[in-house]
Every structure is written in structure tokens, then in C-alpha cells.
Inverse folding.
């Protein structure tokens, strides 16, 4: 799920790299239509663009709430690392209410400061009953430090894996396979080009952020009715972060901006008109 700001950013990224413009269709009240209509420079409709993300709304809510918070009941600064958001305590909105109660109990038991692994939800020899309870609710690690003012930071679970191209492809494929995205891009009219734009988070986004090597592997399989897929890093999109495009034939392509960018390779790769 993406917000209007993300959708507008995707439209700008596409416009900067192609000879098409994006005209908004979905004003937030039409859940069954694509986000944008693609138009050529003369204003003729030539396709549709739908914008999505590989991160669900619950994760976004927790990201927004992950800044350290003062908790007066605590005597330490605590960082809680989650293993799996879906089995966490009462969902993202309840974490800052539920966790302090358990951490206060740990402090009363003179819980040793420092970094500690709680396991994978199974009973481990070194894990206390209270730690085991936290582990079964989705807490993977605890880190506590002496502090004058009690603080609590909650770090969402991040999918692991090497910064490989396959992570990008699998993340894009999961969105291409969603019936909702396919339905929106299969609407009658609008021209032949039906593009899905996927904002990536976590490990797949890191491949676009930090690895300058161009993609070499085959891209994802495009379902019938979708003619292209874009991927870009979500949340923060620095100029060095790559944007990839795949039309279902061969590997990903790096889609360079047509606007001058210092140090960027030129010329850009033209996409279908």
C-alpha cells in the first residue's frame, strides 16, 4: 500500500525517464482503477500505470512509529528488534503500550544490560519465562543500556538475504502476481502500455541503493495484461539509487533519467512510446 505522495513520486520518476506523461485517474476514492493514465506528448492516451509497494500497511505504520519514545516507567534505554511483524504484540499501534510493561518486569529482575538473543519462539536453555513469552510474540533481540531517562525504540523485522538481483525480481514478481494489480491494469481502453511501478523496501531496495553493477539476470514473468514493471527504492530515493525497468523480454534495464545528473551515464535508455 502506498500513499498519494509515493504515487506522485512514481509518476515523476517515469516521466523523467520516458517520453510519456502521467495523468492521475485514482483520486483515492476509486479503488478499482489504476493510479495514472499514460499519455504521449500530444496528450493521446497510450496506457495505464499502477503504483504499489512490497511493504504492507502494518509495516509502514510501525516504521512511522519507530522513533525512540520516552517511557517514564523505564530506567534504561531499550531497543527491541522484531522477528516477524505479523506475530508481534497487538500490532504496530499497541507495541509502545504492551512492551514497556514486560520491560519494567525485566528491570525489576535485574535483567543484565547489553544485547541478548531471545531465539525463534522456541524454549531455549538460557531464556527466562518472560523472555520466552516475548519471543513467542515476535521479539527476536533485546538491547538495554543504562540511561537517566527511560527510552524505547522498536526496530521492525527486515527480510534478510544477500543484496542480490534475485531479491529484486522476487519482490517485483510478488506484486505482479497480485490479482488486484492485474485487474486495475486490465481495464478497457487507455492504450497498449500497462505498467506496474513497485517501490521496494528492505533487502531488495539495498540492491538498488548500494550495488552499482547493472542487472544481468532475466527479469520477472509478466502476467497477461501487464507489459512492463518498474522498481525503485522506497521511503528515501537518493540520486545514486537505481531505477530498473523490465518489459518481460530479457533482463532488467537501468532506466536513466533524461534530466542531466552529475556523473550519470548517458544517454538514457528509451522506453516504448
Amino acid at each position: 500500500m502506498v500513499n498519494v505522495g509515493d504515487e506522485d513520486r512514481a509518476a515523476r520518476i517515469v516521466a523523467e525517464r520516458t517520453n510519456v506523461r502521467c495523468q492521475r485517474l485514482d483520486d483515492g476514492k476509486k479503488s478499482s482503477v489504476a493510479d495514472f493514465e499514460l499519455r504521449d506528448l500530444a496528450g493521446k492516451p497510450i496506457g495505464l500505470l499502477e503504483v504499489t509497494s512490497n511493504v504492507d500497511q502494518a509495516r509502514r505504520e510501525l516504521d512511522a512509529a519507530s522513533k525512540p519514545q520516552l517511557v517514564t516507567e523505564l530506567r534504561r534505554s531499550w531497543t527491541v528488534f522484531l522477528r516477524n511483524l505479523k506475530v508481534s504484540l497487538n500490532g504496530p499501534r499497541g507495541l509502545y503500550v504492551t512492551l514497556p510493561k514486560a520491560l519494567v518486569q525485566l528491570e525489576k529482575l535485574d535483567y543484565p544490560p547489553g544485547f541478548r538473543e531471545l531465539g525463534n519462539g522456541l524454549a531455549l536453555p538460557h531464556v527466562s519465562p518472560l523472555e520466552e513469552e516475548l519471543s513467542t510474540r515476535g521479539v527476536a533481540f533485546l538491547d538495554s543500556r543504562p540511561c537517566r531517562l527511560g527510552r524505547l525504540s522498536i526496530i521492525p523485522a527486515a527480510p534478510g538475504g544477500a543484496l542480490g538481483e534475485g531479491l529484486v525480481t522476487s519482490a517485483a514478481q510478488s506484486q505482479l502476481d497480485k490479482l488486484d494489480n492485474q485487474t486495475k491494469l486490465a481495464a478497457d481502453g487507455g492504450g497498449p502500455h500497462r505498467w506496474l511501478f513497485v517501490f521496494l523496501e528492505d533487502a531488495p531496495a539495498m540492491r538498488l541503493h548500494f550495488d552499482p553493477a547493472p542487472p544481468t539476470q532475466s527479469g520477472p514473468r509478466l502476467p497477461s495484461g501487464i507489459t512492463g514493471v518498474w522498481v525503485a527504492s522506497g521511503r528515501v530515493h537518493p540520486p545514486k539509487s537505481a531505477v530498473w525497468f523490465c518489459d518481460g523480454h530479457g533482463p532488467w534495464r537501468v532506466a536513466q533519467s533524461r534530466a542531466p545528473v552529475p556523473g550519470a551515464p548517458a544517454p538514457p535508455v528509451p522506453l516504448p512510446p
